[in-house]
Known about the structure:
alpha/beta; five-stranded mixed sheet; single chain; 2 domains
Amino acid sequence: MYFRDFLVILRDFTYYLAWFVGLVFLFSGVQDLVYDIGAYSLRLFRRIYYRNRERLTLVRLRDREQQRIAVMVPAWNEGEVVGMMVKNILERVEYRNYLIFVGTYPNDQRTQDAVNRRRRKAERRSGWRRGRSERDPETYRLCRPGKERHRGKVGR
């Protein structure tokens, strides 16, 4: 008798559990449907609104005036790779109007040394000179000779 009551209770529990799981799946599916409708609506709007505009090609992009951008590189315990990564940015990026900020921690001496070595190589190779920042005397700036344009913040 007790076993039969247990089976009835178990049957009712699984029945309500199945309804609960089904509703969860239904509501999560409705949420996905709403997101999909929004994404396809935006895609359709852009296709209609921008169809008469000329597309941006690589030639047109290179002809445009470069706006200043910043490359932020947070580095913690990256002494082995950060120098090569900054070198790759300097050598391979076609864009020339950018600042490189390498953020290091005071207690991570290996990473700071690697960044400082890369900075010194960049100074020698490209004619950049080192100047101290007016706001933070512990921050180095790389500036072109005769210009006060901020090139990159490296070191501490």
